[in-house]
Each structure stands twice: as C-alpha cells, then as structure tokens.
Amino acid sequence: MTVAAEPALSAPAERLRERLASAPGGLRAEVADRDLPTIEVAPEAWPALARYLRDDPGCRYDLFLDLCGVDNLKRPGQKTRFEAVVHLHSLSRNEHVRVRVPLPNSDKPSLPSVSDVYPAANWFEREAYDLYGFDFPGHPNLHRLLCHDAFVGHPLRKDYAPGQRWFFAEEDLRMPAWSKDTDVRAGHFETQTISIGPSHPATHGIIHLVARLDGERIVRAETMIGYLHRCFEKMAEKHHWNQIIPYTDRLNYVSAMINGVGYVRTVEKMLGVEVPERGRLVRTILSEFTRIMDHCVCIGANLVDIGALTSFVYLYQNRENVYDLLEACCGARLTVSYVRVGGLAVDVPDDFVARCRGLLESIPKLLDDVEKLVNNNRVVRSRLSGTGVVTKEQAVAWGMTGPMLRASGVPYDVRQARPYDFYDRFDWDVAMARDGDNFARYLVRLEEMRQSLKIIRQALEILPAKGPVNSDDWRVVLPPKDAVYHDMESLIYHFKLVMEGVRAPAGERYEWIEGANGELGYYAVSDGRGGPYRLKVRPPCFPNMAAFEHMVVGGTVSDAIATLGTLNIIAGELDR
Amino acid sequence: MSGVVDVSRRVPDRLTFLQRIYLPEIFRGMAVTLRHLVLNLLDRRRMPTIQYPEQKRNYSKRFRGKHILKAREDGTLKCVACYMCQQACPAECITIVAGEHPKIAYEKYPVVFDIDMMRCVFCGFCVDACPKDAIWMTRNYEMAFFSREDAVFSIERLRESKEEVATHGYGYRPYYPGDGTTPPSDASLLPVVSGSGERDTLRREGVVLPERSAGAGPLNAPSQAAKAFPA
C-alpha cells in the first residue's frame, strides 16, 4: 500500500511525516494512518529512524513499549512474509506511534538491533528471535528467552505445527558464558556464581537468576525466564475472540479482571461496538478493586520476603474480600472470565453496590493497620530505602511503566494520559514519588490503592441502578437466553456466534490500558475470521524484569530479593 | 479535576530517635496485632479463616463448579448433542458423540458426553453456549481423583443427581430464578405428534411432520438480520 493511495493524513500523522522529511540526512520512511500513526521503514534504516524518533525534539518517542513479529504466510496481500512491529510512546507529547519494518523474504529475516538506542528492546528482540527466528545483528545476547534451549523451530511462525513436543534435559540448560569463568581478583578471594531459583520462595513464580557474587555483592547477573511459557499467543491464533478471555485470566492471574478488560476493549475497538455505560462502570469498579488486590499481593509478598509476615495477612484479607465480590459476580475467584466482547457474562448481583460499599469501608482500615506496622519500622526502612534504585532516565530507557516508572518520578498513567471509560470524569490523582527506590514503590502502590478507592466511590455514585450491561448488537453479544429458547431468529444468532465467533474486520489494532503493573497493551491483527490472526500482549512486567539483572548489580543478594518483590513479577504474564 | 500527588515525603525521611530504638515501634505494632487477636476472639464471625474441611465456605449461586447434565421429566437428558458446547469450549475438554434417538421429538441425543476435568478451566462457556438448557454448573468443587482416566467424567457422573444438588446446590446456569427467563419446553411433556412417537413407527406409517412456525421474537427485526448477514 502506498502513501499516495491513502486519504488525507490525520494531524499527528501529518506532523510526523513533516518531521521525518526534515530529518538530517533524509530518512526513507513512509507514514500512514492506521489506528495509530504508522511509520513504515526498511530494516537498514530502522536504527537511524529509532535514534531520530528518540532524540528529535519534535518526536521524543522515549518509551519503548513493544516489539513483536508478524508472519504473513496465511495473510495474502502483504508486502513481505515477515514484519516486525514496534510501538513507541512519547512521554512529553503523550502520543503513541507504530513502526512497521517489513523484512526481506528469507528463512532468517534480519533487522539491526536497536538495543543500544532503546535498552528496553533487548528482551523484546530476544523474544522475536525466539518465537519468529528473526536475526538481530548487533544484539549483545541473542539467545532464546521464552522457549527452552532444546527447542527446535520458531513456534509463532505460521508453518510451525503446534502440538510438537521438545524434550528438555538438565544438561540442555544454557548458562551464561561468563558464569563458567573463574574470576580471581588480586588480593581478594575469587568470586562465585550461584543460581537463585528457578524454584525459590522469593522468586514468586519460576524465575532463574544467575548471579556472580563477590562476597555478598552481586557483580554480574542474568535472568532466565520462560519456565511458565504456555504459548498464549499461539493458542490465541487457534481460538475465537471470545474464547481467549479465559486465557487472559491466566496472564496476570493476580489481576485477572484488568487483563480481560484490556483484551475485550481491543476487540470492541476493532468491531466498533459500544458497551453501555453500566457495563463499562462495572468493569471500571471491578478493575480498580483488582488493582487494589494486585498491589496488596505485591506489597504483602514483598514484606514477607524481607521478614514481615503480619502485614501480609492483613493485606491478603483484603484480597479475600475482593475475591468474594468477584465470585458473587461471576462465580470464580481467581480466573474470573467475567468480561465478554461487548459487555459482561452476566449482570452484577442485586447486592453489588452494598458489597462494594462494604469493601470501601473495610479496605482502608486494614491499609491503616499495615501502614502502622510498616511505615516507621526500622527494619523495613533499612531494607527498602535506598535499595533497588532506578533513576528517572533509567526507568524510561528500560521501558518501565506503571508504579515502577511513577516511583522514579515520571507520572505516566494511561488512565490519565489517555483516559478510557470514565477515568476523565473522576477526581483522582496519579501517585508518584521521586526516589525510585523500593520504599518509593511501596509508597506509590499504597497511595494508588487509596486513589482506586476514591475512583470506585465516584463510580458507584454514577452507576445506573438498572440498565443493560451488554451491547445489543447480536453479531457480537449472545442474545438473551429467553429469546434463544423460544425464538428461531435469536437461536440463529446464538448459533453463528458460538460456532463461528465474533467476526472482527480485517486490520490491526493496538489498545492499551493501565494494568496493575503498568501499560498493558494488546496488539491484534485480524484477517476477518472469527479469531485473531495474531495477538501480541505487551506485558507490563516484562520490561521491568528485563531491567532486573542491571538493577541488582552492586547490591547484596538480600537487596535483590527485596527488589524482586517490588518489581511485582507475575510469571504468568511475563512468560505468557 | 485530576492531578498528580507526590508521595515521596509522605513518610518522614528520617526516623526519630524513638523509632530508631525499636522498642516503642514494637509495642505500637503489637497493639495492632493484639487488637486483631482480641476482636477475632470476641467475635468468631470476624475470623477471616475457616476450618476446612469441617467448615465450608458459602459460595454464591453463580459459583462455577462441577457440571451437571439436566434431565427431562422422563429422565432422558435434555442434551440434543448439537456440539455447541464442544465448539465453545476454550480448553477443548468436551467430547460428544451423537446418536439418533428413537423418539422423534427428542431428535438427537448424546451417546457419549465426556468432560475431561483435568483440562476444564471452569469458565462456564458451555453453559452460555447451550441452546437447550441442558448443562448447568453446581457449587461442587471437590472432585479429586487418583488417575487421569478418573478425571474424564462421563454421562453417569455428569447426570444431575438429587443428592449432589441437595449437598452442593446449583451454581452457574443460563438463567436464575426471577430474571424473567422461561425455560425451553420439555420435549417429554409435549403431546406426541402421531402414533407412538417412535421414529421407526412414524416412518413405516408414512407420517409427514408439520412445519415449524417461524419465530416472531424481538430479534426478528430486519435491521438486526442485515447486521448479522450483510449481503
């Protein structure tokens, strides 16, 4: 598709084109208007473009959000078989942009690494190498990330037969090359390499940290993940749009509701479906409760790791109470599967508002108790203050979002930067701190929980007492059961939806919301069938974890444990 | 309206002398935990924990537990083996084999209806997909088994039993009492069209069955049809 054939560009895309045209040396890049301004560039020009997009004062796309591959083998009409798709965000101008890099046809398509421009790209490139077999010349550590080292092939390629099994034995484990070297320092004993994890109580899920220790200080580290990789994205390609909802629950299983909301919003945007106000408000209320729950788990588990058990119990009490509310709404506590494309599975129970108000009463009391136990506790302070420090520049360079970024002094919150649903109608503040250490993250999360309560209180005020929660577009939402049982026409709609799925028009869409850990993005490509052609999740804790191996260097092992706790790694989301 | 709140200095940067010598803070902390202990002892209903399995949690009427297959008045399963739940299942855990029922009114029936409970994710999509009100869920969540074979529940274990419903109660279902849904008519209570109603007898007698009337429900509006099946 050429730019000339496109209708007039929207203002941001037009501005971007002018900006690129005025670049010194000339950047051969085309700008088109999709759901986001989309730049198309050849692989050779990509690093120069990346550098320009980051540094040019008129662009300043400083936050690297996502890089993923797309295989067009079964989607005819595209320029090349493989393409890399990058999403960037500009913090100063509050804009997203997409860069598409079509890759020349080859069995090992290659594009230069930009991990020197955007450190956050490091792991995303490794992931694309692993799942698509893209080569990234110039990458410092191009190894498999999500699949194990004995894996053969690249699973997200369309010609990879799913269902193959690759046996992994212990001797197949690739340890970093430096971990085998001995390193004897003059006048000092030799350093030693240890493995923390994969199965360790402090790793919260299964994460493997290889660390070289000099005494108790970490001098070098590398994280290995993928132990919980369940091929979410490959599974998504085999299912209908609605059938993926239970899978999204298992991404970040601590805040399952938010994942579902983020996912169905993407599909709804593709379809152009409008969810009634009541449905969206219920989603907002439950998402905010889920956010509180997620922060409770993060703070609670972090405090347990550093030896404070009591606050954990009080925080988990909140979580249990929120689970009760979720279970009353949808019938499950952890894996809620409550949302549907176009609305919710069922309307909330009659006592929903009363239950929410009860929680609004009980949660702050327990938070107060936790603050009394923790805030001025000397042990907690000495473990958390000044450890795991991330400066503002580092946080941006590593692509961090959410509480991690906000604790380092960047008040970027999707709910305020690009208000969705009703967030612009509520009176609430984005919590931020400046120190960037573990204690700052604790404070930010604590304040976010209180702000979430504030949002819920206002959402309950404007929640209509009665009314539909689902769209009445029967191409998307299952008709009411009464009609299905007694009316042939409704039964046909029902049948078409169940058997063929919702049909999203061909195209692509990136939608993002504020997850509990940061920007949760879904990039969906549809070819017009009942399910996604490609679905990429931008898991917020993935860039955080990528930075972990840099953050721990210079600190002690016990600091690393405290830092891992405040990163809030959810292995389900990290490994997908 | 909305702004940014800086929490960096919400908690004093430096601890006071009293906070640094541990003891006063320890007592303050113990006051919090003691308050919880005493209040919980005085009022056991406040206790957040329960003594499972002697004591069980009371789940909502929407709880997604073990599935049951609903039966008609005459004891045959309402399921007509239409495969919609099998298709809707994201975990691909339902296996159906359809057979032709001797009674014409029942059309098809499931010869095999298996749910692999090891694969099942209890999302309730099968309940949503069923057009015949044939599959519900209960609040039964105690389904431990010792082998993979035992995990595949067949019709015998899925058929609704009075004892199971009495013990656990219904969970997630397509409609709830009072939401205005009329369940589909029970085929076993309908008058027999002709003769014995047996398929083979009817065939022998050369009976031509009456046409079903087209529905005239709320979704029959032409606009809705145009949306669903664009030309």
CATH class of the largest domain in chain A, anyone?
A: Mainly Alpha
Percentage of residues assigned to helices of chain A: 25-40%
Number of discrete helical segments of chain A: 19
Termini separation of chain B:
48 Å
> How are the strands of the largest sheet of chain A arranged?
1-2-5-4-3
Q: Give the end-to-end Cα distance of chain A, rounded to a whole number of Å.
A: 33 Å
Name the average pLDDT of chain B: 80
Count of discrete structural domains of chain A: 2
Helix content of chain B: 25-40%
In what range is the share of β-strand residues of chain A?
5-15%
How many individual β-strands of chain B?
A: 6
Major sheet description of chain B:
3 strands, antiparallel
> Spans of chain B with pLDDT under 50 lasting ≥5 residues?
209-226
Low-confidence stretches of chain A: none
- Which two chains touch over the largest interface? A-B, 74 and 64 residues
Please identify the structural class of chain A as seen in this structure: alpha+beta
**Anisotropy-based shape of chain A:** globular
Radius of gyration of chain B: 28 Å
Mean pLDDT figure of chain A? 87
- State the major sheet of chain A: 5 strands, mixed
